[in-house]
């Protein structure tokens, strides 16, 4: 059984942790995001939707932007705001530039690939690199040098395309353009002849492939919530990224080393024409900060700007020309006009040399066509900034500190509210006026970024694209290898085409199959991660708890109480908790359960109870666990505190309960409620229908406690108070949830995630608070208007008057706590005890009849008495005192079914109990009243029998030691309302039993308790009432 228990606990824990992890993410996503606040951008979905739509991500975002120019996805920790509104873009990138940075998420996502390069940093590092780069890009030397490189590589590209054109074979133009721009950027940027286009550089090809793979993997971080776990486990996309970075780093560090040697050997200006040489010279001024790692980052950022964006843009440009052949021919005509060439020109080098600065400036239509391509297919389709402080965007939407704001260039290029109804058409003419190119606002045409971070290489990019385009279009006309093929983009930092091939169709199909396999593998990887993570968390959590449970507990030291099991056994046996503990106590009057941090000691030994509650009272407090467990429901009320607060409340309550005014007032309320209760039961008795006695008694005692305690006619019994019923239901729900904290080691996690019992508790507390604070406010107003004593008969009025002496400490929150503690004492315990009392009378009909006979003898009534009010008025103080057998039967009930089945204290210091067992500081000690009532070593061999006679001697009730009969507590904290409770129970019992005989609605039904702070009957107590009187 112990093995099965452990297996069940493990399975349950696993399921719970999986659900908790899922719910944790969900709650982290939905918590504090002002989802329905119209001041914030409308919420479209969660970040998981982006992951789901990753293959068509930019089109998915575009569709949303058509109706919501600014909108949100919710993610753990913050909102992901996306905007296609140029006003917002200008605000982020220029107006409030200092308030929007790369942010922690942006920097972290880019760090492994781009390090501290210009695209991945803010502040001083960004300014330093920007300053150096700005100076270099402004020099004529670099411009002339770069143009000569672009022409030379364009000439080589023409040569390679010629080979395919002559053979009639298709080719992958994007791959060829990538190689061409890579060669160019390596020559211009780093002074290296890579020869990737020629296919002579195996290392160059490996580097290019690794860089593209790293680009894809880095991009996935923005939509993959599990990327950190993949990185940690070295699997999936993050495994590929690590592998790519290793290849990249090896190549780049080798390049830096080689370049340093060249600079050391040569000092002529030719060597220093490239940008890396200039950065290396600059690094000599600050070698500590501008080390090889920093230079590596600069190189890779320059790479992404110079290779990826230009090659990708040229690829989309050729695609658009294939789809728009008239535009292609217009550009060709412009080339011929500007260069004074004709279609029969075959001198490649001669023609390309004619593409000088003047010719490039005259290519207005080509410039427009390239810009139109960039509008629809921006090289960086989406970029992000993070709000450093709360802000309001120009469109009126609020942004919270830490929110990521994405400006979606791909979507902006397709918005009719930006570009007109023809926004999705490829129309270079939109950029021209009288044949001259007209630039647009950079916040509308965002392809080259805008504001202080606008792209420094914009003119270089146009220059390279124009040179390559002119060279290719002068010598060739392009068309798709397969006109029916669908060209898609690849989700990366830069907008590459997926399988855009002007040929090699068979190879492309193989690539598709590989990609499908790759996607499937990525899904399987994610699933594997979840499974592995779950197992890892479960094992780690189990190991942590095991260590915490078994560390420092002196398990085999006979000076301490014997260990029975761990706290998980209590959790597993929670539905039959009190009986489970009782079975153990039959053999071990004092025993232990091990829990994280301390031992949970349970005792049924009256000597120990007296020691804890009286002899060493000052050494045993509610303790941190007790206070914390009760705090949300009972706050700082008398049952949840120690010290000064307890003394203050105890003093006030003791005084009130000792006054004759309150005693008389409460008895009149109890009689009135009992009279109403008889009337309601009479209806069921006459109809022959069963009713839930516990529910009715709860309503009755609630009405009584509200009148006596708070001076309010609640009328919950007659069903006139909807708010009262909601309050009662919420209070019972809160009671159950609070009780579960004492056996549930995961309650804090549930509370943090706001799930399960803790979610119900928070909901219940909200309902309770609303009701109670309203009650306090109303009562204050009543007291302000009236000054007569009638208003002040109730206990709340007296506490309110007392609060005027110390309004700072006795505030409404404190009064709320006092009310709810009074509620637990006055409603739950009395109604629950009366329910168990009626249940015992149904199970012991002879006892029921004995009580009825005593009632008749004491009140001088007989079975034909039908005057309910008249009979109840006869239940006076004298009559109640004479009800000895009834008093015994009620005491016997609360012996077996104590209203508080179990209570706890915590040891402030080490101690030794009277039974010889040691207690360590911080140990929780439970005295188990439910168990004590069933122990033969306390009550004799007939301990489990319902036997009121055990309390009588010569017909007179005999009190027992409160440390043996612990139902009303004992010592300095003994229940001050004990006599009030007996009085109410006697009045209600006398009224009901005089007029009705009770039996179970279903004699075969098994009645169980509900695990709460107080001992309720599970599912209610369904009885039938038979009238004793005749009309």
UniProtKB/TrEMBL annotation:
Keyword annotations from UniProtKB, A to Z: Heme, Iron, Membrane, Metal-binding, Monooxygenase, Oxidoreductase, Transmembrane, Transmembrane helix
Subcellular location, record wording: Membrane
Chain segments annotated as transmembrane: 6-30, 523-547
GO molecular function, one term: oxidoreductase activity, acting on paired donors, with incorporation or reduction of molecular oxygen, reduced iron-sulfur protein as one donor, and incorporation of one atom of oxygen
Protein name per Swiss-Prot or TrEMBL: Cytochrome P450
Membrane topology: Single-pass membrane protein
Similarity comment: family membership: Belongs to the cytochrome P450 family.
GO cellular component: a single term: membrane
Gene3D superfamilies named in the record: Cytochrome P450 (1.10.630.10)
Short name of one Pfam family: p450
Cofactor or coenzyme needed: heme
Gene Ontology biological-process annotations: lipid metabolic process
InterPro entries the record matches: Cyt_P450 (IPR001128), Cyt_P450_CS (IPR017972), Cyt_P450_E_grp-I (IPR002401), Cyt_P450_sf (IPR036396)
Chief place of localization: membrane
């Amino acid at each position: 059984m112990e093995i099965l228990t452990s297996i069940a606990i493990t399975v349950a824990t696993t399921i719970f942790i999986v659900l908790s992890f899922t719910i944790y993410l969900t709650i982290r996503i939905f918590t504090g995001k002002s989802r329905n606040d119209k001041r914030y951008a409308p919420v479209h979905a969660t970040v998981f939707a982006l992951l789901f739509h990753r293959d068509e991500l930019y089109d998915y975002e575009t569709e949303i932007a058509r109706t919501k120019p600014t909108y949100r996805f919710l993610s753990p920790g913050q909102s992901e705001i996306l905007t296609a509104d140029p006003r917002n873009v200008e605000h982020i990138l220029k107006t409030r530039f200092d308030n929007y940075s790369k942010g922690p998420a942006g920097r972290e996502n880019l760090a492994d690939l781009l390090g501290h390069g210009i695209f991945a940093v803010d502040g001083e590092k960004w300014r330093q690199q920007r300053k150096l780069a700005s100076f270099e890009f402004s020099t004529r030397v670099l411009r002339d040098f770069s143009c000569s490189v672009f022409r030379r590589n364009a000439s080589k590209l023409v040569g390679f395309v010629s080979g395919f054109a002559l053979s009639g074979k298709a080719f992958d133009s994007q791959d060829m353009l990538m190689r061409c721009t890579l060669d160019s950027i390596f020559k211009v940027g780093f002074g290296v002849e890579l020869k990737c286009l020629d296919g002579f550089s195996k290392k160059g090809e490996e580097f290019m492939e690794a860089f593209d793979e790293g680009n894809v993997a880095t991009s996935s971080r923005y939509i993959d919530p599990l990327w950190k776990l993949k990185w940690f486990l070295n699997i999936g996309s993050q495994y590929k990224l690590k592998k790519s970075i290793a290849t990249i780093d090896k190549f780049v560090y080798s390049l830096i080393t080689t370049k340093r040697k060249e600079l050391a050997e040569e000092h002529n200006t030719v060597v220093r024409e490239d940008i890396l040489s200039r950065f290396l010279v600059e690094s000599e001024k600050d070698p500590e900060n501008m080390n090889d790692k920093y230079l590596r980052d600069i190189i890779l950022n320059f790479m992404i700007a110079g290779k990826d964006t230009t090659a990708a843009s040229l690829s989309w440009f050729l695609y658009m020309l294939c789809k728009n052949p008239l535009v292609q021919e217009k550009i060709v005509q412009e080339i011929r006009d500007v260069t004074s060439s004709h279609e029969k020109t075959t001198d490649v080098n001669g023609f390309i040399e004619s593409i000088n600065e003047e010719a490039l400036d005259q290519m207005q239509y080509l410039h427009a066509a390239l810009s139109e391509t960039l509008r629809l297919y921006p090289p960086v389709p989406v970029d992000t900034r993070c709000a450093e402080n709360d802000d309001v965007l120009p469109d009126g939407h609020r942004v919270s500190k830490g929110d990521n704001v994405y400006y979606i260039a791909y979507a902006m290029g397709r918005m009719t509210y930006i570009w007109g109804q023809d926004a999705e058409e490829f129309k270079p003419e939109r950029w021209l006026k009288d044949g001259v190119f007209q630039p647009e606002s950079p916040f509308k045409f965002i392809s080259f970024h805008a504001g202080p971070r606008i792209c420094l290489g914009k003119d270089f990019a146009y220059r390279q694209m124009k040179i390559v385009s002119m060279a290719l279009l002068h010598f060739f006309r392009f068309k798709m290898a397969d006109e029916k093929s669908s060209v898609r983009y690849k989700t990366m930092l830069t907008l590459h085409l997926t399988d855009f091939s002007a040929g090699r169709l068979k190879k492309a199909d193989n690539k598709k199959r590989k990609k499908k396999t790759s996607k499937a593998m990525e899904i399987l990887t994610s699933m594997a991660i979840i499974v592995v993570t779950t197992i890892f968390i479960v094992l780690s959590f189990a190991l942590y708890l095991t260590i915490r449970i078994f560390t420092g507990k002196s398990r085999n030291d006979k000076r301490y109480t014997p260990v029975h099991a761990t706290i998980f056994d209590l959790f597993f046996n929670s539905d039959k908790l009190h009986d489970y503990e009782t079975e153990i106590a039959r053999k071990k009057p004092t025993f232990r359960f091990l829990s994280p941090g301390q031992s949970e000691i349970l005792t049924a030994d009256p000597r120990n109870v007296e020691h804890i509650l009286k002899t060493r009272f000052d050494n045993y407090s509610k303790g941190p666990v007790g206070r914390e467990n009760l705090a949300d429901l009972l706050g700082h009320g008398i049952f949840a505190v120690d010290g000064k607060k307890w003394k203050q409340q105890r003093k006030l309550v003791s005084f009130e309960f000792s006054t004759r005014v309150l005693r008389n007032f409460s008895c009149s309320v109890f009689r009135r409620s009992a009279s109403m209760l008889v009337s309601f039961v009479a209806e069921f008795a006459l109809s022959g229908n069963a009713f839930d006695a516990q529910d009715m008694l709860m309503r009755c005692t609630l009405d009584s406690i509200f009148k006596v305690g708070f001076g309010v006619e609640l009328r919950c019994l007659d069903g006139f108070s909807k708010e009262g019923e909601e309050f009662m239901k919420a209070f019972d729900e809160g009671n159950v949830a609070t009780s579960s904290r004492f056996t549930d080691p995961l309650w804090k996690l549930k509370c943090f995630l706001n799930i399960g019992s803790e979610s119900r508790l928070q909901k219940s507390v909200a309902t309770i608070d609303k009701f109670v604070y309203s009650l306090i406010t109303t009562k204050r107003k009543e007291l302000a208007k009236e000054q007569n004593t009638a208003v002040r008969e109730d206990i709340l009025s007296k506490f309110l008057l007392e609060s005027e002496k110390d309004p700072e400490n006795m505030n409404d929150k404190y009064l709320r706590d006092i009310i709810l503690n009074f509620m637990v004492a006055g409603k739950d315990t009395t109604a629950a005890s009366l329910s168990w009392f009626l249940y015992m009378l149904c199970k012991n009909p002879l006892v029921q009849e004995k009580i009825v006979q005593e009632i008749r003898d004491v009140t001088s009534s007989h079975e034909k008495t039908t005057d309910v009010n008249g009979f109840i008025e006869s239940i006076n103080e004298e009559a109640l005192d004479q009800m000895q057998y009834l008093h015994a039967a009620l005491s016997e009930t609360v012996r077996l079914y104590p209203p508080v089945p179990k209570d706890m204290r915590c040891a402030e210091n080490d101690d030794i109990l009277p039974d010889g067992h040691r207690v360590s500081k911080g140990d929780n000690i439970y005295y188990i009243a439910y168990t004590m009532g069933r122990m033969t070593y306390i009550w004799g061999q007939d301990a489990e029998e319902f036997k009121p006679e055990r309390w009588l001697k010569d017909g007179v009730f005999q009190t027992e030691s409160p440390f043996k009969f612990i139902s009303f507590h004992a010592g300095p904290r003994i229940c001050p309302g004990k006599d009030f409770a007996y009085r109410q129970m006697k009045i209600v019992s006398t009224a009901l039993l005089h007029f009705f005989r009770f039996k179970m609605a279903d004699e075969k039904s098994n009645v169980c308790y509900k695990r709460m702070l107080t001992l309720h009957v599970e599912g209610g107590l369904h009885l039938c009432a038979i009238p004793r009187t005749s009309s």
